[in-house]
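User: Sorry, folds how?
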Amino acid sequence: MRLVSLRHVQPGMKLGRTVFTEDGKVLLGVGMLLTERLIGGLERSGIDSVYIDDPRTADIVVEEVIRPQTRQVAVEAIEKTIKQITNSNKLARKISLKEMGLHFQRAFSSILDDLMLNKQMVGHLTTISTHSPSLYHHSVNVAVLATAVGMSLGYNRTQLMQLGVGAMLHDIGKVSLPEELVQKKERWTEEEREIAKQHTTLGFNLLRKQHDISLLSAHVCLQHHERLNGSGYPQGLSGKQIHEYAQIVGICDIYDSLTSPRPWRKRYMPQDALEYLLGSGGHLFEHTLVNAFIKHIAIFPIGSSVVLNTGEIGVVSKVDPDYSHRPIVRILKDGRGNDVHTPFDLNLKENIKLFIVGFEDDELFSLGGMSEDTPS
């Protein structure tokens, strides 16, 4: 299995992993033979890459840290809540929102159970399945990442539930923003950005009224854009005034936002996003929390196509958590761009003169201007 840019996908290729719509429904299932019509549908849905089954990489398995059905339940919980919040019938909205906390506890419990069963994978996340600009998938991704950090810090189940539910709901206030702002496909103006900042307070005011949602989870929503040096919002808190949960979610929010495409830009490379976070340690976030996060992220995810300094092109087949920058690479093309007759594995940890210089599908990634693209 390997990750392929949609621009390089050809009719007849077989899908290696399920593709979801932005609201969590299955768009195309595993094993589907792609046609021109299906590829066009993926493009219209905003999908920029898919996993493809390839005989040369058949033994490379990109495992999902949470099951597809677990993700689907979580995404549907978020979608249902948004529909409840925006219901024009005030009485129906009030009655349905009483169940909100319970729905999210159940959805996150499934996520937590999956993560507990996959502790080895959680120890070093090579993929979290979906990089989508959708609020639904972003919320689930941030919850998975934040929980992995919480587990590494030794949080108990109650703490993980508080952190995880807060992470799933960190952006819920955005549904109360003007619809034209949320749906806008261009970069926000400074005036629009100031309006968007209200989502932290709007979300907190909603969550703190819910019986089954911890006040700490609500404070994650309120504080996830606060920064250690006081430069954040909405209150300009600094240092220990910011809850640890909110800092963790802030870190995960930035990473997932930067490594997911936006209508006005492509995704950033994982190493670029990690470099940004490394530079934020002790400045925007606590060093210990940034380091705890970075320990869980593979710079070169399994299944991604990479280019070596020799010009050879291959697919990352295995990642050693202690040497994530030097994975094992399945070589598919030689330095001249020709297919190799018999693909072979190179362990970059044992070949110190070899190193990865980038990804094959450069068109997937945006370069430069990252400071302007941090989450609002």
Residues 2-53 form a domain with the Molybdopterin biosynthesis moea protein, domain 2 fold (CATH 3.90.105.10). The chain has a mean pLDDT of 88. The longest strand covers residues 339-347.
